[in-house]
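In this section we turn from sequence analysis to structure. A common task in structural bioinformatics is to predict how a protein folds when a small molecule is present, because the ligand can shape the pocket around it. The inputs are simple: the amino acid sequence and a SMILES string for the ligand, here pyridoxal-5'-phosphate. Study the lines below before reading on.
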Amino acid sequence: MIPIQMVDLKRQYSKIKEEVDKAVVDVMDNTSFINGSAVASFTSKLSAYLGIEHVIPCANGTDALQIAMMALDLQPGDEVITPSFTYIATTEVMALLRLKPVFVDVDPDTFNINADAIRKAITNKTKAIVPVHLYGQSANMEEIMQIANEFGLYVIEDNAQAIGATISFSDGSVHKTGTIGHFGCTSFFPSKNLGAFGDGGAIFTRDAALAEKAKMIANHGQSKRYYHDLVGCNSRLDSMQAAVLNVKIDYLDEYNEARQLAAAYYSKAFSENSRIQTPTIAKGNTHVFHQYTLKLNGVDRNELVNYLGGQKIPAMIYYPVPAHRQKMFSFLNLPEVNLPVTDWLTERVFSLPMHTELDQEQLEFITTHVLNFINK
Ligand SMILES: *Cc1c(COP(=O)(O)O)cnc(C)c1O
């Protein structure tokens, strides 16, 4: 059996090596390392893939979130409603900009931000909502947009884990995640569903003025060369990463399907077991399984991780500490937030290997050993 990894980038690369190598060598040959033609062509491919007019490439997903918040002119003290049950980058940039993250609870089945909790958290200082499409499925964007419209709030979608996922609204319209709010932000970190060979990110919007502003901020606030109208930063997708992504974006749907097949195998194998709750796909959603995350019920999670480790099966806890319990935020003097679902999930979630190269033999080995431990 091929050794099992959380993410097997080596085997994925081996299948497209010729194409990728050629694209990277082309960049080296024409030495257009910054803002080369690969960046322009990837940006327009991504824009076509998402069906959204404006795509601004940048250095990573964290920067994408920060630039979007800067482009919306969010000011110190402004409140931003967001889940605590997410990767730290979502909320870290709020602290960096001295915004006030208002952490709300998530839905115990989808792991995504709870719309009722958003409503309850709105004050006259609330300026924006930042939902995260965690593990690869959309948050309840129809209701989130309704709330945003009702209260005049901005929405920035953290789409780092869900590129290619869709959600259908009650009017039958189907939307790609990241294209619904005022801004969508994504990451091309190597292990993401669309991963580069290093760091990368992008911001999407339908709004031409916001796009222009985000583009300026990502480029030192520059309107024309050496004229700097806004305080910005230096955040670029480099040409070599764009060249890799230019090849890989053509495989994105195939990659997401491979993830869905692996997820279906897992979910079928665990379907009869009362101590394992398999992922719930909300009605109208397609899930692209950035992670395959189970909830364990009455199982010693550490022991399970150790047991699987002994069989050379990796497993991870995403995430062991929710944002509102991170020391990073202590300086903000957040009032005691009470997020029972987030805390409950933090104790129970458990993620199995998930990538595009899992084969039947590996999946059978993993599920057999998980069930061996659970049923012992
Ligand atoms: C990966 C990730 C990010 C940050 O992306 P980087 O490219 O690593 O900066 C932000 N939010 C979520 C939910 C992520 O998973």
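The chain has two domains: 9-250, 251-374. As an exercise, try to locate the residues that line the pyridoxal-5'-phosphate site and compare them with your own expectations.
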